[in-house]
Amino acid sequence: MSDFPTLETPRLLLREIVSADAPALLAIHGNAEAMQWFGMDPITDIAQAQALVDTFTESRSLPNPGIRWGIQDKTHEALLGNCGFFKWNRQWKSCSLGFALGQSAWGKGFMSEALQATLVWGFEQMQLNRIEATVHPENQACLKLLERLGFVQEGRLRQAGFWLGEHRDLLQLSLLRAEFEPSPISAL
């Protein structure tokens, strides 16, 4: 994954996250309300946001690489959020999905549109057979989004996460290539 793949949807540009995006990442990942579901403590300063940019960049060169897109409304330059894959197991043709969206963009269908393009890319370009997601059981918006995209809930991972000072249960969901039915993005 040396060349970063840019994806486009009718409203969005999914692009590489760069240092100039650190302020937007601070706003997104510094929001305590949003981060209660994300699996990490909120970041608190621009240095942590820059470290997040670096983490996303470096993840592409790991033995089990990942890729994280910045989600940008085509009419604005600032990031709305981010999404992508991590823990790619090439032998098993599987990986995990992660995403975060700034609060000002909630409820507008942006993440659904972004994930639809991301899933297509994962199944086609990475040749994935299985995409996994873990979600806090009380994150109903995320669970509904994943279920609309075709993910199936498989079970509960007891105290599998730790953030904000607490061990937390997570729900395991997955989407298989054979079950994936891409929706026309314009209909989202």
UniProtKB/TrEMBL annotation:
PANTHER family linked: GNAT FAMILY, PUTATIVE (AFU_ORTHOLOGUE AFUA_3G00765)-RELATED-RELATED (PTHR43792), RIBOSOMAL-PROTEIN-ALANINE ACETYLTRANSFERASE (PTHR43792:SF9)
Protein name: GNAT family N-acetyltransferase
Stretches assigned to the N-acetyltransferase domain: 12-169
SUPFAM superfamilies listed in its UniProt record: Acyl-CoA N-acyltransferases (Nat)
Organism the protein comes from: Pseudomonas nunensis
Coiled-coil stretches noted in the UniProt entry, renumbered to this chain: none
InterPro entries the record matches: Acyl_CoA_acyltransferase (IPR016181), GNAT_dom (IPR000182), N-acetyltransferase (IPR051531)
Gene3D superfamilies recorded: 3.40.630.30
Top-level taxon of origin: Bacteria
